[in-house]
Amino acid sequence: MKPSPRDTAESKRKITRRGLILGGAQLVFMGGLTFRMRYMQVEQADQFRLLAEENRINIRLIPPTRGLIYDRNGLVLARNEQNYRIVMVREDVDDVDEALARISRIIPMSPEDLARTRKELKRRSPFVPVTVADRVTWDQVAEVAVNAPALPGVSPERGLSREYPMGADFAHVIGYVGPVSDYDLSRLEDPDPVLQIPRFQIGKTGVEAKMEGDLRGSAGTRRIEVNAVGRVIRELSRAEGEQGADMQLTVDAGLQNFMQARLANESAAAVVIGLDKGDILGIASAPTFDPNKFVRGISVADYRALTENTYRPLASKTVQGTYPPGSTFKMVTALAALEAGVIDPDETVYCPGHLEVGNRRFHCWRRGGHGQVDLNKSLEQSCDVYYYDVAQRVGIEKISEMARKLGLGTRHDLPLSAVAQGLAPTKAWKREKRGAEWVVGDTLNASIGQGFVLASPLQLAVMTARIATGRAVTPRILKSIEGIEQPSGAGVDLDISPAALSHIRRGMFDVSNARRGTAYRTRVVDDALKLAGKTGTSQVRNITKEERARGVFRNEDLPWERRDHALYVCYAPADDPQIAVAVVVEHGGGGSTAAAPVARDIALRALHDDLPPLEAYPANQRREVEERFDAMDLMPPLPKPSPGRSRA
Amino acid sequence: MSYLEHNIKTIPSGWRKVLFVNWALVLLLTAVAGVGFMMLYSVAGGSMTPWAEPQMKRFALGLAAMFIVAFIPIWFWRNVAAVAYLASLILLILVEFIGTVGMGAQRWIDLGFIMLQPSELTKIALVMLLAGYYDVLPVKKVSHPLFVAIPVVLILLPTFLVLKQPDLGTSLLLVMGGAVVMFAAGVHWAYFAAVTAMGAGLVGGVFASRGTTWQFLQDYQYRRIDTFLDPASDPLGAGYHITQSKIALGSGGWTGRGFMQGTQSRLNFLPEKHTDFIFTTLAEEFGFIGGFSLLGLYALILLFCLSAAFKTKDRFSSLLIIGIAATFFFFFALNMSMVMGLAPVVGVPLPLVSYGGSAMLVLMAAFGLVQSAHIHRPRGR
């Protein structure tokens, strides 16, 4: 279609008009840009000149101060200690190799350290300071500062590093921190920028790792002026990050110290739980190690010594180790039977020393047998045959149900590393995991805490606490975060008949106090501090018929790793329970000889809040006990400050 | 055909065309490119490599392209506008499949001798097509809803494809370039008012869709917007660019720190110092005077284009020149706003100055179109 000339002329005018409007708008915008430029370059020039004339601005992250950890009485268990380090900013250094060589003349550095530093320098942005040497002495700092003109881009910095004043006592509880590894970074979806700070330390194990989110805090930023060679001239502005949250544990440092000392170099674990709130008052695993060594970078030799030790010092045996509970499990079987109504407490079972079931013979620990045994005697003297008989009537499902009710076979949610679930076996479990049908022999073994049953010392302490209170006491180790009290673990009523519980409690009292009780030797003579306990000796091997015939029965004749585990659980005081204690001595032999004395000392220490009174011990044992206490390397009694908000 | 045929005798032909080239515009373009060479030489620490020398070669190539395009009659370009548009659409789709991923975006096709960025080509092809469209459309029908809808679809088609790459900066330029041609062609005011309102709605939608599975933009684009709104939120990440860019610019003062004396850019404070952030180096080293001079050169280029647009007698030429000039304007306006902290970092280079092959070639070819319209306009003897 041919446009008319009039049409064309009019449209041309319109284009010109609109073109002018557009041109005008563009000009106005450019005017705006000019003003903005003038504003920045002329009016604000002084400010920017100041920043950029001979200095430049750098933005650096301020690592947050890690939260402190206190014990229940306000004693510091993990604090931040000031130290010095040397950092290097790559873009300000002329020759990295030359600079490193100069620094290593002042501060000795191993070839590995140097290689790591070089790698780090290459990896980071050129303006990010990289730590060359950590934990340098004040003299070395001074020497670096004096040599500043020869070392452009190198400067000393002050930093904080973690320190554990209680050393080895809390190694398994609090754990330790270490530098962020590539593995740590790769595990995180959206890593906190603060993790990019070279050698930033994060929790690796224990409470430090599990509560990392609260303890770490968030990074601040600071804008700093640096001169032409990169030295910091001054700080321009500072946006403080947030400090990590302080937290208080339920653990009593004094008790913990006593427990570690009492366990000494045994391969053993002990747990003390306060019954009112489920507070873990002490949780000791021996042998232990010094977490400070890990923070500072443990030497290969030290590390090898820890990993190659057969007593496994790195393992947290209280929560991670699971053991056949042995006779300490008998309360579970008895309670299950009482609740199911299949036994009467006064009903007796004849124990000839063994029981034939099918074509197998199940032995009692006492070869001669216990004769007629009722419920009370079965606990007091720990008769196995009684439980073989009872277990067949109750069945494994009811026993396991009771075990779970008492806190066995369930994972207690604590901020500790590697908390084990243990095992309260059922028929379905065996079919699924072992691919075999449950046989009656399995029930018999389980009834005396052998076979498939596994429990950690923590779970045994929880079980004892629940028997002592009748409540579902749940262990907790965090008392408060930033002063906010954490939920109590007092628990609700377990719905077990009081009559059944009182039968069990009486049996346990007799274990520790009746003349024929298995733990009579470790009785307490002070009426206000009496224990109610149960010994346990769990086999880690099968005793063959030949061994039995030959009479190889003595633990001492066996190599360490094949000896029985010694266990003892108790609550105290017997008439007004305050605490529950569980002690497991790995391959320690008999529960009454290896575990019960330890548990008694720990229970009395926990109740008395000081060294146990000698008067509580039977007169003929006092001398031995006193000598033992004298030999222990305990920390001096400390004044007990209230948990302060101040930082070390 | 129209009056072009009627007036054909008054249009220069053969070697006489050389006389009618707008030499002032050529000189201005060369001056701007010269500023670019200087800055690229400076940010490389006083070295022709790795940026200044290749850039010079590209500019020479660009000049050649401009002259070739300029000597081909403008009516040829009008006739191939639709073809160019279709070709660029196909290239945009192609880049989805065989494109090379660079800087987290799929934008390039490797042709062997040059990395082609089809979205650059699209900007010019779109303006050509729209100018051709309004050349054919009777003036009375310009504001008819149906005939407004057609160019809108033509604009949105490539915009959508570019946004998918993802390249927010170029898709913005496409929309704005197309809108300018429509505006210049005389489409009623009300449409633009409506689109502005809708645009505001879209921005709302973009933010509302964030975090859902059908979010419009990539996460990094959202983060850039966040950072623009609050640079302090990420001072060592994306906010770093803006903060450092402002410091470099501001520290220039009236006269700057002198050639090759800018510490901010030379000491690697700006990671994209040779591309998107090159203006900060200019402003740091030559101060307000330097920055203003470049802005002045750009303004003169726009002025020459506009006057050429008014002098041409046909709608296609006028609209094409206005469209190209506007695209050029949006280029540097967006880039400068970005480095001055007035706009989010969207990744738009400074035209003719930033290091980059595709953009330079396409822009020079576009100015070839301007020259062609200028040369081939009818003149009195």
Automatic annotation (TrEMBL), chain A:
<dbReference type="Pfam" id="PF03717">
    <property type="entry name" value="PBP_dimer"/>
</dbReference>
<dbReference type="InterPro" id="IPR036138">
    <property type="entry name" value="PBP_dimer_sf"/>
</dbReference>
<feature type="domain" description="Penicillin-binding protein transpeptidase">
    <location>
        <begin position="269"/>
        <end position="602"/>
    </location>
</feature>
<keyword id="KW-0378">Hydrolase</keyword>
<keyword id="KW-0997">Cell inner membrane</keyword>
<keyword id="KW-0812">Transmembrane</keyword>
<keyword id="KW-0472">Membrane</keyword>
<dbReference type="GO" id="GO:0009252">
    <property type="term" value="P:peptidoglycan biosynthetic process"/>
</dbReference>
<dbReference type="InterPro" id="IPR050515">
    <property type="entry name" value="Beta-lactam/transpept"/>
</dbReference>
<feature type="domain" description="Penicillin-binding protein dimerisation">
    <location>
        <begin position="62"/>
        <end position="236"/>
    </location>
</feature>
<keyword id="KW-0573">Peptidoglycan synthesis</keyword>
<dbReference type="InterPro" id="IPR017790">
    <property type="entry name" value="Penicillin-binding_protein_2"/>
</dbReference>
<keyword id="KW-0645">Protease</keyword>
<keyword id="KW-0121">Carboxypeptidase</keyword>
<protein>
    <submittedName>
        <fullName>Penicillin-binding protein 2</fullName>
    </submittedName>
</protein>
<keyword id="KW-1003">Cell membrane</keyword>
<keyword id="KW-1133">Transmembrane helix</keyword>
<feature type="transmembrane region" description="Helical">
    <location>
        <begin position="20"/>
        <end position="39"/>
    </location>
</feature>
<dbReference type="InterPro" id="IPR005311">
    <property type="entry name" value="PBP_dimer"/>
</dbReference>
<dbReference type="GO" id="GO:0071555">
    <property type="term" value="P:cell wall organization"/>
</dbReference>
<feature type="compositionally biased region" description="Basic and acidic residues">
    <location>
        <begin position="621"/>
        <end position="631"/>
    </location>
</feature>
<dbReference type="InterPro" id="IPR001460">
    <property type="entry name" value="PCN-bd_Tpept"/>
</dbReference>
TrEMBL record, chain B:
<dbReference type="InterPro" id="IPR018365">
    <property type="entry name" value="Cell_cycle_FtsW-rel_CS"/>
</dbReference>
<dbReference type="GO" id="GO:0005886">
    <property type="term" value="C:plasma membrane"/>
</dbReference>
<keyword id="KW-1003">Cell membrane</keyword>
<dbReference type="GO" id="GO:0015648">
    <property type="term" value="F:lipid-linked peptidoglycan transporter activity"/>
</dbReference>
<comment type="pathway">
    <text>Cell wall biogenesis; peptidoglycan biosynthesis.</text>
</comment>
<feature type="transmembrane region" description="Helical">
    <location>
        <begin position="82"/>
        <end position="101"/>
    </location>
</feature>
<comment type="similarity">
    <text>Belongs to the SEDS family. MrdB/RodA subfamily.</text>
</comment>
<feature type="transmembrane region" description="Helical">
    <location>
        <begin position="286"/>
        <end position="306"/>
    </location>
</feature>
<comment type="function">
    <text>Peptidoglycan polymerase that is essential for cell wall elongation.</text>
</comment>
<keyword id="KW-0808">Transferase</keyword>
<keyword id="KW-1133">Transmembrane helix</keyword>
<dbReference type="GO" id="GO:0008955">
    <property type="term" value="F:peptidoglycan glycosyltransferase activity"/>
</dbReference>
<keyword id="KW-0812">Transmembrane</keyword>
<keyword id="KW-0573">Peptidoglycan synthesis</keyword>
<keyword id="KW-0472">Membrane</keyword>
<dbReference type="InterPro" id="IPR001182">
    <property type="entry name" value="FtsW/RodA"/>
</dbReference>
<keyword id="KW-0133">Cell shape</keyword>
<feature type="transmembrane region" description="Helical">
    <location>
        <begin position="20"/>
        <end position="44"/>
    </location>
</feature>
<feature type="transmembrane region" description="Helical">
    <location>
        <begin position="352"/>
        <end position="370"/>
    </location>
</feature>
<feature type="transmembrane region" description="Helical">
    <location>
        <begin position="146"/>
        <end position="163"/>
    </location>
</feature>
<dbReference type="InterPro" id="IPR011923">
    <property type="entry name" value="RodA/MrdB"/>
</dbReference>
<dbReference type="GO" id="GO:0051301">
    <property type="term" value="P:cell division"/>
</dbReference>
